[in-house]
Amino acid sequence: QVQVVESGGGLVQPGGSLRLSCTTSTSNITMYEMTWHRQPPGKDRELVAGISGGPSGGSTNYADSVQGRFGISRDILKNAVHLQMNDLTPEDTAVYFCKAQGRYSGRTYWGQGTQVAVSS
Q1: I need a labelling partner for 78 at 20 to 30 A (CA). Which of 30, 55, 86, 111 fits?
Q2: Could you tell me the pLDDT band of residue 82, with boundaries at 50, 70 and 90?
């Protein structure tokens, strides 16, 4: 069992930035594919960004809607991932979730989410 905990959400004005963090209880985050998802009010959950597992830094991918504005990164020493969100718009308002998926087991572990609200 891997515990996943998100933090860093809050209220920000349009054009602002936030940095979300996802801490895990694993001792080796390279064994997991890490992704950020979000669920806007009244809508389905959607994939925002991902970073692959493995020891060599991980490849990244982004939803078209956040490409060029969001950046996902991994801290191997702290077994954490971060989501840097820039140039936020009201359409980015959502609960943001972090997911860890075992590279070999396929097991998935979700956090409880952190709320991001973009409003003037």
Answers
A1: 86
A2: very high
How many other CB atoms are there within 10 angstroms of residue 75's CB atom? 13
The single residue listed with the structure tokens 């860093």 is 8
- pLDDT tier for residue 57 given thresholds of 50, 70 and 90: low
Asked if 75 and 81 touch (Cβ cutoff 8 Å), the reply is yes
User: What type of residue is 103?
Assistant: R
DSSP for 32-100, written as a single string? EEEEEEEE-TTS--EEEEEE--SSS---EEE-TTTTTTEEEEEETTTTEEEEEE-S--GGG-EEEEEEE
Q: Express each pLDDT in 89-117 by its tens digit.
A: 999 999 999 999 999 999 999 999 999 99
Q: How far apart are CA 61 and CA 71, in angstroms?
A: 9
The secondary element (H helix, E strand) that includes residue 25 is none
